[in-house]
Automatic annotation (TrEMBL):
Enzyme Commission numbers on file: 6.1.1.21
Organism: Fusibacter paucivorans
Protein name (database record): Histidine--tRNA ligase
Keyword set includes Lipoprotein: no
Name of the coding gene: hisS
Pfam families listed in its UniProt record: HGTP_anticodon, tRNA-synt_His
Catalyzed reactions per annotation: tRNA(His) + L-histidine + ATP = L-histidyl-tRNA(His) + AMP + diphosphate + H(+)
Protein backbone atom coordinates (compact mmCIF):
# COMPACT_ATOMS: atom_id res chain seq x y z
CA UNK A 1 0.00 0.00 0.00
CA UNK A 2 1.46 3.33 -1.06
CA UNK A 3 0.52 6.24 1.20
CA UNK A 4 0.27 9.94 0.39
CA UNK A 5 3.50 11.92 0.72
CA UNK A 6 4.13 13.73 4.00
CA UNK A 7 2.61 17.21 4.11
CA UNK A 8 -0.08 16.51 1.51
CA UNK A 9 -3.80 16.03 1.91
CA UNK A 10 -6.68 14.37 0.09
CA UNK A 11 -9.78 16.51 -0.15
CA UNK A 12 -12.57 13.98 0.07
CA UNK A 13 -16.19 14.52 -1.04
CA UNK A 14 -17.16 14.97 2.62
CA UNK A 15 -14.96 18.11 2.71
CA UNK A 16 -14.89 19.34 -0.86
CA UNK A 17 -18.13 21.32 -0.57
CA UNK A 18 -16.25 23.69 1.76
CA UNK A 19 -13.67 24.31 -0.96
CA UNK A 20 -16.43 24.95 -3.50
CA UNK A 21 -18.03 27.43 -1.12
CA UNK A 22 -14.79 29.36 -0.54
CA UNK A 23 -13.76 29.34 -4.20
CA UNK A 24 -17.20 30.50 -5.32
CA UNK A 25 -17.27 33.30 -2.77
CA UNK A 26 -13.74 34.41 -3.69
CA UNK A 27 -14.56 34.47 -7.42
CA UNK A 28 -17.73 36.42 -6.73
CA UNK A 29 -15.94 39.06 -4.65
CA UNK A 30 -13.11 39.35 -7.22
CA UNK A 31 -15.71 39.94 -9.91
CA UNK A 32 -17.48 42.53 -7.73
CA UNK A 33 -14.14 44.39 -7.60
CA UNK A 34 -13.48 43.97 -11.35
CA UNK A 35 -10.70 41.35 -11.31
CA UNK A 36 -10.22 38.67 -13.99
CA UNK A 37 -8.87 35.18 -13.46
CA UNK A 38 -5.40 34.12 -14.61
CA UNK A 39 -4.19 30.48 -14.59
CA UNK A 40 -0.52 29.60 -14.87
CA UNK A 41 1.42 26.28 -15.04
CA UNK A 42 2.16 24.13 -12.01
CA UNK A 43 5.90 24.53 -12.56
CA UNK A 44 8.20 27.25 -13.86
CA UNK A 45 11.91 27.73 -14.43
CA UNK A 46 13.64 27.85 -11.08
CA UNK A 47 15.18 31.17 -12.02
CA UNK A 48 11.73 32.80 -12.06
CA UNK A 49 11.33 32.15 -8.35
CA UNK A 50 14.94 33.00 -7.54
CA UNK A 51 14.39 36.39 -9.13
CA UNK A 52 10.69 36.90 -8.51
CA UNK A 53 10.50 35.67 -4.93
CA UNK A 54 14.06 36.53 -3.96
CA UNK A 55 17.32 34.81 -3.12
CA UNK A 56 17.11 35.71 0.57
CA UNK A 57 13.62 34.32 1.21
CA UNK A 58 12.82 31.16 3.15
CA UNK A 59 11.07 29.91 0.01
CA UNK A 60 14.14 30.09 -2.22
CA UNK A 61 16.71 29.29 0.46
CA UNK A 62 14.95 26.31 2.03
CA UNK A 63 11.58 25.35 0.59
CA UNK A 64 11.71 24.89 -3.17
CA UNK A 65 10.41 21.67 -4.72
CA UNK A 66 12.81 21.37 -7.60
CA UNK A 67 11.72 19.00 -10.32
CA UNK A 68 13.99 16.52 -12.03
CA UNK A 69 13.81 17.57 -15.66
CA UNK A 70 13.71 15.38 -18.73
CA UNK A 71 16.76 13.53 -20.04
CA UNK A 72 17.53 16.24 -22.62
CA UNK A 73 17.47 18.97 -20.02
CA UNK A 74 19.51 16.87 -17.64
CA UNK A 75 22.38 16.80 -20.12
CA UNK A 76 22.87 20.54 -19.78
CA UNK A 77 22.13 20.77 -16.09
CA UNK A 78 24.29 20.03 -13.10
CA UNK A 79 22.07 19.14 -10.17
CA UNK A 80 22.89 18.26 -6.60
CA UNK A 81 21.09 15.62 -4.51
CA UNK A 82 20.06 17.10 -1.20
CA UNK A 83 19.34 15.40 2.15
CA UNK A 84 15.63 15.04 1.36
CA UNK A 85 16.42 13.06 -1.77
CA UNK A 86 15.65 15.84 -4.22
CA UNK A 87 17.95 16.68 -7.01
CA UNK A 88 18.15 20.44 -6.77
CA UNK A 89 18.69 22.30 -10.00
CA UNK A 90 19.37 25.87 -9.17
CA UNK A 91 20.44 27.02 -12.62
CA UNK A 92 18.13 28.35 -15.30
CA UNK A 93 17.41 24.97 -16.81
CA UNK A 94 15.93 23.61 -13.62
CA UNK A 95 12.22 23.66 -12.90
CA UNK A 96 10.41 24.27 -9.64
CA UNK A 97 6.84 23.48 -8.60
CA UNK A 98 5.23 26.84 -7.93
CA UNK A 99 5.68 27.84 -4.28
CA UNK A 100 3.42 30.90 -4.57
CA UNK A 101 1.06 32.55 -7.00
CA UNK A 102 2.49 35.97 -7.73
CA UNK A 103 5.74 35.37 -9.64
CA UNK A 104 4.02 33.16 -12.29
CA UNK A 105 1.25 35.75 -12.80
CA UNK A 106 3.89 38.44 -13.29
CA UNK A 107 5.78 36.21 -15.72
CA UNK A 108 2.62 35.54 -17.75
CA UNK A 109 1.68 39.25 -17.68
CA UNK A 110 5.07 40.19 -19.10
CA UNK A 111 5.41 37.27 -21.52
CA UNK A 112 1.97 37.90 -23.04
CA UNK A 113 2.76 41.62 -23.33
CA UNK A 114 -0.43 42.43 -21.49
CA UNK A 115 1.12 45.70 -20.32
CA UNK A 116 0.73 46.92 -23.91
CA UNK A 117 -3.04 46.46 -23.71
CA UNK A 118 -4.09 49.24 -21.34
CA UNK A 119 -2.74 50.88 -18.24
CA UNK A 120 -4.36 49.06 -15.36
CA UNK A 121 -4.54 45.25 -14.96
CA UNK A 122 -6.36 43.34 -12.25
CA UNK A 123 -5.97 39.58 -11.93
CA UNK A 124 -6.97 36.88 -9.48
CA UNK A 125 -5.78 33.27 -9.20
CA UNK A 126 -6.61 30.07 -7.33
CA UNK A 127 -3.73 27.61 -7.49
CA UNK A 128 -1.99 24.64 -5.88
CA UNK A 129 1.39 25.56 -4.32
CA UNK A 130 4.31 23.45 -3.16
CA UNK A 131 6.88 24.16 -0.47
CA UNK A 132 9.29 21.73 1.12
CA UNK A 133 8.61 22.76 4.71
CA UNK A 134 8.24 20.84 7.94
CA UNK A 135 4.54 19.93 7.99
CA UNK A 136 2.46 21.28 10.89
CA UNK A 137 -1.16 22.35 11.37
CA UNK A 138 -1.79 24.94 8.64
CA UNK A 139 1.61 24.33 7.07
CA UNK A 140 1.70 21.77 4.28
CA UNK A 141 3.99 20.74 1.44
CA UNK A 142 1.18 20.78 -1.09
CA UNK A 143 -1.40 23.47 -0.38
CA UNK A 144 -3.56 26.00 -2.20
CA UNK A 145 -3.36 29.75 -2.49
CA UNK A 146 -5.73 32.27 -3.90
CA UNK A 147 -4.98 35.92 -4.36
CA UNK A 148 -5.08 39.04 -6.47
CA UNK A 149 -2.66 41.40 -8.22
CA UNK A 150 -3.09 44.94 -9.54
CA UNK A 151 -0.48 46.14 -12.05
CA UNK A 152 -0.04 49.65 -13.37
CA UNK A 153 -0.57 52.14 -10.57
CA UNK A 154 1.33 53.69 -7.68
CA UNK A 155 -1.91 55.08 -6.28
CA UNK A 156 -2.63 54.31 -2.65
CA UNK A 157 -6.23 53.65 -3.69
CA UNK A 158 -4.98 50.39 -5.24
CA UNK A 159 -3.32 49.32 -1.96
CA UNK A 160 -6.54 50.24 -0.17
CA UNK A 161 -8.71 48.23 -2.58
CA UNK A 162 -6.45 45.18 -2.40
CA UNK A 163 -6.74 45.25 1.39
CA UNK A 164 -10.49 45.94 1.13
CA UNK A 165 -11.02 42.89 -1.09
CA UNK A 166 -9.20 40.63 1.37
CA UNK A 167 -11.08 42.22 4.27
CA UNK A 168 -14.45 41.80 2.50
CA UNK A 169 -13.69 38.14 1.85
CA UNK A 170 -12.57 37.45 5.42
CA UNK A 171 -15.66 39.15 6.88
CA UNK A 172 -18.01 37.37 4.48
CA UNK A 173 -16.66 33.95 5.42
CA UNK A 174 -17.51 34.99 8.96
CA UNK A 175 -14.02 35.47 10.46
CA UNK A 176 -14.52 38.50 12.68
CA UNK A 177 -11.43 37.91 14.85
CA UNK A 178 -8.88 38.06 12.08
CA UNK A 179 -7.00 41.34 12.47
CA UNK A 180 -5.30 43.46 9.82
CA UNK A 181 -1.68 44.44 10.57
CA UNK A 182 -0.02 46.96 8.26
CA UNK A 183 3.42 48.42 7.83
CA UNK A 184 5.49 50.27 5.26
CA UNK A 185 8.85 48.82 4.32
CA UNK A 186 10.03 51.77 2.23
CA UNK A 187 11.49 51.82 -1.26
CA UNK A 188 14.89 51.92 -3.00
CA UNK A 189 15.15 55.61 -2.01
CA UNK A 190 14.80 55.21 1.75
CA UNK A 191 15.58 51.58 2.49
CA UNK A 192 19.36 51.66 1.85
CA UNK A 193 19.84 54.28 4.54
CA UNK A 194 17.57 52.38 6.94
CA UNK A 195 19.54 49.20 6.17
CA UNK A 196 22.71 50.96 7.37
CA UNK A 197 21.00 52.01 10.60
CA UNK A 198 19.68 48.48 11.04
CA UNK A 199 23.07 46.89 10.33
CA UNK A 200 24.71 49.13 12.92
CA UNK A 201 22.13 47.87 15.42
CA UNK A 202 22.48 44.21 14.33
CA UNK A 203 26.28 43.98 13.99
CA UNK A 204 27.06 43.42 17.70
CA UNK A 205 24.25 40.83 17.91
CA UNK A 206 25.38 38.69 14.97
CA UNK A 207 27.11 36.01 17.07
CA UNK A 208 23.77 35.38 18.83
CA UNK A 209 21.73 35.22 15.61
CA UNK A 210 21.15 32.08 13.53
CA UNK A 211 23.07 31.19 10.37
CA UNK A 212 20.26 32.33 8.08
CA UNK A 213 20.22 35.74 9.79
CA UNK A 214 23.98 36.00 9.44
CA UNK A 215 23.67 35.12 5.79
CA UNK A 216 21.03 37.84 5.29
CA UNK A 217 23.02 40.54 7.09
CA UNK A 218 24.80 41.76 3.96
CA UNK A 219 22.23 40.81 1.33
CA UNK A 220 18.97 41.97 2.94
CA UNK A 221 19.24 42.85 6.64
CA UNK A 222 15.56 43.78 6.97
CA UNK A 223 14.68 40.13 6.33
CA UNK A 224 16.39 39.29 9.64
CA UNK A 225 13.39 40.91 11.37
CA UNK A 226 11.20 38.20 9.80
CA UNK A 227 13.22 35.32 11.28
CA UNK A 228 10.96 32.72 12.89
CA UNK A 229 13.64 31.59 15.38
CA UNK A 230 12.53 32.70 18.89
CA UNK A 231 16.15 33.15 20.03
CA UNK A 232 16.70 35.60 17.18
CA UNK A 233 13.40 37.36 17.86
CA UNK A 234 14.45 37.89 21.48
CA UNK A 235 17.51 39.81 20.25
CA UNK A 236 15.49 42.03 17.95
CA UNK A 237 12.83 43.57 20.16
CA UNK A 238 14.29 47.11 20.14
CA UNK A 239 15.43 47.14 16.50
CA UNK A 240 14.95 50.44 14.61
CA UNK A 241 11.73 50.63 12.57
CA UNK A 242 11.52 51.24 8.85
CA UNK A 243 8.48 53.52 9.32
CA UNK A 244 10.68 55.96 11.25
CA UNK A 245 13.02 56.28 8.23
CA UNK A 246 10.56 56.54 5.32
CA UNK A 247 11.26 59.08 2.56
CA UNK A 248 8.59 61.74 2.01
CA UNK A 249 6.95 59.81 -0.81
CA UNK A 250 6.69 56.56 1.18
CA UNK A 251 5.52 58.39 4.30
CA UNK A 252 2.77 60.19 2.35
CA UNK A 253 1.75 56.92 0.67
CA UNK A 254 1.49 55.16 4.04
CA UNK A 255 -0.62 58.03 5.46
CA UNK A 256 -2.90 57.83 2.41
CA UNK A 257 -3.38 54.06 2.76
CA UNK A 258 -4.22 54.41 6.45
CA UNK A 259 -6.72 57.23 5.90
CA UNK A 260 -8.37 55.31 3.05
CA UNK A 261 -8.77 52.23 5.24
CA UNK A 262 -10.30 54.45 7.91
CA UNK A 263 -12.67 55.93 5.31
CA UNK A 264 -13.82 52.36 4.51
CA UNK A 265 -14.14 51.59 8.26
CA UNK A 266 -11.53 48.83 7.99
CA UNK A 267 -9.76 48.47 11.35
CA UNK A 268 -6.00 47.99 11.36
CA UNK A 269 -2.96 48.00 13.62
CA UNK A 270 0.37 49.44 12.51
CA UNK A 271 2.81 46.59 13.12
CA UNK A 272 6.48 47.33 12.52
CA UNK A 273 7.22 43.61 12.65
CA UNK A 274 5.50 42.94 9.32
CA UNK A 275 8.35 42.70 6.83
CA UNK A 276 6.91 39.86 4.70
CA UNK A 277 8.80 36.84 3.50
CA UNK A 278 9.26 37.94 -0.10
CA UNK A 279 12.08 40.20 -1.27
CA UNK A 280 10.16 42.23 -3.80
CA UNK A 281 7.91 44.18 -1.48
CA UNK A 282 8.05 47.97 -1.34
CA UNK A 283 5.98 50.45 0.68
CA UNK A 284 2.79 48.78 1.98
CA UNK A 285 3.14 45.34 3.61
CA UNK A 286 0.25 43.73 5.44
CA UNK A 287 -0.96 40.52 7.02
CA UNK A 288 -4.31 39.28 8.22
CA UNK A 289 -3.58 37.49 11.47
CA UNK A 290 -5.92 35.17 13.33
CA UNK A 291 -6.03 35.46 17.10
CA UNK A 292 -7.00 31.82 17.33
CA UNK A 293 -3.79 30.20 18.55
CA UNK A 294 -4.57 26.73 17.26
CA UNK A 295 -2.23 26.91 14.28
CA UNK A 296 -0.12 29.09 12.00
CA UNK A 297 -1.70 32.47 12.52
CA UNK A 298 -1.15 34.39 9.26
CA UNK A 299 -4.13 33.72 7.05
CA UNK A 300 -3.11 36.14 4.32
CA UNK A 301 -0.20 38.34 3.43
CA UNK A 302 0.36 40.95 0.79
CA UNK A 303 1.61 44.34 -0.15
CA UNK A 304 3.12 46.51 -2.84
CA UNK A 305 5.93 45.31 -5.10
CA UNK A 306 6.90 48.13 -7.38
CA UNK A 307 10.14 46.46 -8.51
CA UNK A 308 8.81 43.00 -9.37
CA UNK A 309 7.61 43.35 -12.96
CA UNK A 310 10.97 44.83 -13.99
CA UNK A 311 12.79 42.16 -11.96
CA UNK A 312 11.07 39.46 -14.00
CA UNK A 313 12.09 41.17 -17.25
CA UNK A 314 9.17 43.49 -17.95
CA UNK A 315 8.96 47.27 -17.98
CA UNK A 316 8.91 49.38 -14.81
CA UNK A 317 5.31 48.73 -13.79
CA UNK A 318 4.22 48.92 -10.16
CA UNK A 319 2.10 46.22 -8.53
CA UNK A 320 0.20 45.42 -5.38
CA UNK A 321 -1.58 42.24 -4.25
CA UNK A 322 -2.19 39.59 -1.62
CA UNK A 323 -2.12 35.81 -1.29
CA UNK A 324 -4.22 33.68 1.04
CA UNK A 325 -3.82 30.05 2.04
CA UNK A 326 -6.91 27.90 1.55
CA UNK A 327 -6.02 25.18 4.10
CA UNK A 328 -5.04 27.76 6.70
CA UNK A 329 -8.25 29.69 6.11
CA UNK A 330 -10.39 26.56 6.50
CA UNK A 331 -8.50 25.57 9.64
CA UNK A 332 -9.03 29.02 11.14
CA UNK A 333 -12.73 28.84 10.28
CA UNK A 334 -12.96 25.41 11.86
CA UNK A 335 -11.14 26.53 15.03
CA UNK A 336 -13.50 29.51 15.25
CA UNK A 337 -16.57 27.29 14.92
CA UNK A 338 -17.73 28.66 11.55
CA UNK A 339 -19.82 26.07 9.72
CA UNK A 340 -20.19 26.00 5.98
CA UNK A 341 -23.66 24.74 5.02
CA UNK A 342 -23.56 21.39 3.26
CA UNK A 343 -25.43 21.65 -0.04
CA UNK A 344 -28.13 19.13 -0.93
CA UNK A 345 -26.58 16.55 -3.24
CA UNK A 346 -29.67 15.09 -4.88
CA UNK A 347 -33.21 16.29 -5.40
CA UNK A 348 -34.69 13.10 -6.75
CA UNK A 349 -34.03 9.39 -6.27
CA UNK A 350 -35.58 6.84 -8.60
CA UNK A 351 -36.43 3.58 -6.89
CA UNK A 352 -36.02 0.90 -9.56
CA UNK A 353 -37.81 -2.46 -9.26
CA UNK A 354 -37.51 -5.06 -12.01
CA UNK A 355 -35.73 -5.68 -15.29
CA UNK A 356 -37.91 -3.56 -17.63
CA UNK A 357 -37.88 -0.69 -15.16
CA UNK A 358 -34.07 -0.32 -15.41
CA UNK A 359 -34.27 0.94 -18.98
CA UNK A 360 -37.15 3.29 -18.24
CA UNK A 361 -35.41 4.60 -15.12
CA UNK A 362 -32.33 5.58 -17.12
CA UNK A 363 -34.54 7.43 -19.61
CA UNK A 364 -36.60 9.12 -16.87
CA UNK A 365 -33.43 10.19 -15.03
CA UNK A 366 -32.13 11.77 -18.22
CA UNK A 367 -35.38 13.76 -18.65
CA UNK A 368 -35.15 15.14 -15.09
CA UNK A 369 -31.43 15.94 -15.40
CA UNK A 370 -32.00 17.72 -18.70
CA UNK A 371 -34.56 19.85 -16.86
CA UNK A 372 -31.88 20.71 -14.24
CA UNK A 373 -32.99 18.35 -11.45
CA UNK A 374 -30.22 16.48 -9.62
CA UNK A 375 -31.27 12.86 -10.01
CA UNK A 376 -29.86 9.53 -8.85
CA UNK A 377 -31.11 6.02 -9.63
CA UNK A 378 -30.59 2.69 -7.89
CA UNK A 379 -27.77 0.56 -9.31
CA UNK A 380 -27.79 -2.23 -6.74
CA UNK A 381 -31.12 -4.00 -7.39
CA UNK A 382 -32.06 -3.57 -3.73
CA UNK A 383 -35.52 -4.23 -2.25
CA UNK A 384 -38.05 -1.39 -2.18
CA UNK A 385 -37.50 -1.09 1.59
CA UNK A 386 -33.72 -0.85 1.23
CA UNK A 387 -34.04 1.73 -1.54
CA UNK A 388 -36.36 3.87 0.61
CA UNK A 389 -33.90 3.59 3.47
CA UNK A 390 -31.12 4.80 1.19
CA UNK A 391 -33.29 7.71 -0.04
CA UNK A 392 -33.80 8.72 3.60
CA UNK A 393 -30.10 8.45 4.29
CA UNK A 394 -29.11 10.76 1.45
CA UNK A 395 -31.89 13.15 2.53
CA UNK A 396 -33.36 13.38 -0.93
CA UNK A 397 -36.65 15.35 -0.90
CA UNK A 398 -38.42 13.37 -3.68
CA UNK A 399 -38.50 9.77 -4.87
CA UNK A 400 -40.09 8.10 -7.89
CA UNK A 401 -41.14 4.48 -7.66
CA UNK A 402 -40.61 2.76 -10.98
CA UNK A 403 -41.36 -0.97 -11.28
CA UNK A 404 -42.35 -3.16 -14.19
CA UNK A 405 -46.06 -2.43 -13.43
CA UNK A 406 -45.50 1.31 -13.83
CA UNK A 407 -43.70 0.66 -17.11
CA UNK A 408 -46.77 -1.21 -18.41
CA UNK A 409 -49.15 1.57 -17.26
CA UNK A 410 -46.88 4.40 -18.49
CA UNK A 411 -47.31 6.38 -15.25
CA UNK A 412 -45.41 6.36 -11.94
CA UNK A 413 -45.76 7.95 -8.50
CA UNK A 414 -43.56 10.90 -7.45
CA UNK A 415 -43.48 11.04 -3.70
CA UNK A 416 -42.54 13.88 -1.35
CA UNK A 417 -40.41 12.40 1.45
CA UNK A 418 -41.25 15.16 3.92
CA UNK A 419 -45.04 14.71 4.07
CA UNK A 420 -45.67 11.47 2.17
CA UNK A 421 -47.92 13.13 -0.45
CA UNK A 422 -47.64 11.85 -4.00
CA UNK A 423 -48.68 12.68 -7.56
CA UNK A 424 -48.83 10.49 -10.66
CA UNK A 425 -46.59 11.53 -13.55
CA UNK A 426 -46.04 10.12 -17.02
CA UNK A 427 -42.93 8.09 -17.79
CA UNK A 428 -42.61 9.82 -21.15
CA UNK A 429 -43.72 13.22 -19.93
CA UNK A 430 -42.17 14.25 -16.62
CA UNK A 431 -43.11 17.95 -16.95
CA UNK A 432 -45.53 17.89 -13.98
CA UNK A 433 -42.84 16.32 -11.77
CA UNK A 434 -40.21 18.84 -12.85
CA UNK A 435 -42.61 21.72 -12.12
CA UNK A 436 -43.37 20.38 -8.62
CA UNK A 437 -39.70 19.94 -7.66
CA UNK A 438 -38.79 23.35 -9.09
CA UNK A 439 -41.62 25.04 -7.20
CA UNK A 440 -40.23 23.60 -3.96
CA UNK A 441 -36.69 24.73 -4.92
CA UNK A 442 -37.92 28.30 -5.27
CA UNK A 443 -39.92 28.27 -2.02
P1 LIG B 1 4.45 31.88 7.02
O1 LIG B 1 4.86 33.06 7.81
O2 LIG B 1 3.28 31.18 7.59
O3 LIG B 1 5.58 30.97 6.65
P2 LIG B 1 4.73 33.00 4.40
O4 LIG B 1 5.27 34.37 4.63
O5 LIG B 1 5.64 31.93 3.97
O6 LIG B 1 3.90 32.52 5.66
P3 LIG B 1 3.31 33.77 2.01
O7 LIG B 1 4.43 33.35 1.15
O8 LIG B 1 3.01 35.19 2.17
O9 LIG B 1 3.47 33.08 3.45
O10 LIG B 1 1.99 32.99 1.55
C1 LIG B 1 0.68 33.56 1.66
C2 LIG B 1 -0.23 32.65 2.44
O11 LIG B 1 -0.15 31.30 1.98
C3 LIG B 1 0.09 32.53 3.93
O12 LIG B 1 -0.44 33.61 4.64
C4 LIG B 1 -0.58 31.23 4.29
O13 LIG B 1 -1.97 31.41 4.48
C5 LIG B 1 -0.36 30.41 3.04
N1 LIG B 1 0.78 29.49 3.19
C6 LIG B 1 2.09 29.78 3.05
N2 LIG B 1 2.83 28.68 3.22
C7 LIG B 1 1.97 27.65 3.48
C8 LIG B 1 2.11 26.25 3.72
N3 LIG B 1 3.30 25.67 3.72
N4 LIG B 1 0.99 25.52 3.92
C9 LIG B 1 -0.23 26.09 3.89
N5 LIG B 1 -0.43 27.40 3.67
C10 LIG B 1 0.65 28.18 3.46
MG1 LIG C 1 6.66 30.46 5.02
Amino acid sequence: MILKPKGTNDILPSEVYKWHHIEKLFRKICEEFGFEEMRTPAFEYTSLFKRGVGETTDIVQKEMFNVIPSVETRKVTEGVWDAAGFKRYLDKDGMTLKPEGTAPVVRAFVENKMHGQGQLHKFYYITPCFRHERPQAGRMRAFHQFGIEIFGTMSATADAEVIALADTFIKRVGLMDVKLHINSIGCPTCRPQYNETLKAYLAPKLPKLCDTCNDRFDKNPMRILDCKNPDCQAELHDAPHMIDSLCDECAAHFEDVKSMLTAMTIDFTVDTGIVRGLDYYTKTAFEFISEDIGAQSTVSGGGRYDGLVAEVGGPEIPGVGFGMGMERLLLTMQNTGIEIPKPMVNELFIIVLGEQAKRSALAVAKRFRDAGIKTEIDHLGRSMKAQFKYANKIEVPYVIILGDDEVTKGVMPLKCMADGTQIEIGIDDVEKGVALIQSKQEA
